[in-house]
Amino acid sequence: MAVEKMSIAKALNESLRKALEQDPKVLIMGEDVGKLGGVFRITDGLQKDFGEERVIDTPLAESGIVGTAIGLALRGYRPVVEIQFDGFVFPAYDQIVTQLAKMHARALGKIKMPVVVRIPYGGAIGAVEHHSESPETLFAHVPGLKVVSPSNATDAYWMLQQAILSDDPVIFFEPKRRYWDKGEVDTEAIPGELHKSRVVREGADLTLAAYGPMVKVCVEAAAAAAEEGKSVEVLDLRSMSPVDFDGIQASVEKTRRLVVVHEAPVFLGVGSEIAARITERCFYHLEAPVLRVGGFHAPYPPARLEDEYLPGLDRVLDAVDRSLAY
Questions:
Q1: Which residues fall within 8 angstroms of residue 146, CB to CB, at 6 or more apart?
Q2: Contact criterion met (CB below 8 Å) for 254 and 204
């Protein structure tokens, strides 16, 4: 067993390095991914070790980057595309939704699209406009795309490799506020299924379900609730499309209450679909309505106001109290 403590950023870097070593058809493309090593240094050192033909610095043209990746996938390559910041993905949205997501179905299964689009997402880094978005719902809504997000170093390492091995396109959301969070990574482990949820903390009174950057907040909320005698289970969803509804249902049938937490606006967010589906599946088990905690239905604010915008410990605990009050 090879266990090493590393940050999420380092885990992603090591994961990309392993993928490049194992398959010569894996390519990395994006703005500043080569010489600079990415603005968050996720691709640091990879161009030096694997060359400019495999770790490719592209022009500032997201639509062109994804379009080129689609063409490379058609020729048997496995491109890993980096979108520098979440808010920059929208020039490429047309390519992703109308081409990347539909090519497999359009070709009646004869064409595969093994493309990974890596997107650093979310707030809490004090950034300017277009650098703190959480657009995951826009992609989870699109048939043909897989959408995932790790919350810890182990998942960052293994989920990225699983995404690269997938023959379907994967939108890989990386919680940029957690890049420097560290954890132990077993680089020789057998990873679980890419789209399976995972119980992070056992509980009996209520389930907190989250993904990406909000998992840590939910763990902190569960610890705070325990000091008041409340037993809260924390479920890391890991995948926004497909969603592991069976895993959520199993937790809710035990705790009989559910609060879904994400940074993205609550309105029509991933939590909305989860709330509707779990209400259908668990109607006779629920002792309270499914509650949602998330961002406000407003453009992401200037950095000095983001602490008010982002769901934090107090807002999660308030939802826990409201649910347990039923």
A1: 163, 166, 168, 169, 170, 171, 194, 195, 239, 241, 242
A2: yes
Task: Enumerate the H helices of the chain as residue ranges.
Answer: 8-22, 46-50, 62-74, 93-94, 103-106, 136-140, 153-165, 214-226, 245-255, 270-281, 306-309, 313-324
Please give the model's pTM, rounded to 2 decimal places. 0.97
> Which residues are CB-neighbours of 51 under 8 A, at least 6 positions away?
none
Q: What is the mean pLDDT of the chain?
A: 97
Residue 257 in this model has a pLDDT that exceeds 80: yes
pLDDT of residue 7: 98
| Type and span of the H or E element at 293 | strand 291-295
Burial tier of 104 (Cβ tally within 10 Å: 0-12, 13-18, 19+): middle
Distance CA 18, CA 107 (A): 31
* Both structure tokens of 153: 């170093």
Using alpha carbons, list the distances in angstroms from residue 40 to 18, 130, 281: 19, 16, 41
Model pLDDT, residue 1? 61
pLDDT at residue 285 tops 70: yes
262 labelled catalytic = no
Q: Which two tokens stand for residue 61?
A: 């043209």
Smallest CA-to-CA distance from 16 within 161, 131, 116 is with: 161
**Alpha-carbon gap, residue 255 to 232, rounded angstroms:** 8
Exposure class string for 6-15: b at 16+ Cβ within 10 A, else e: bbbbbbbbbb
Q: Which of 104, 130, 131, 195 is catalytic?
A: 131
Above pLDDT 70, what percent of the chain?
100
**Token code pair at residue 109:** 């299964």
> Residues 78-88: pLDDT tens digits?
999 999 999 99
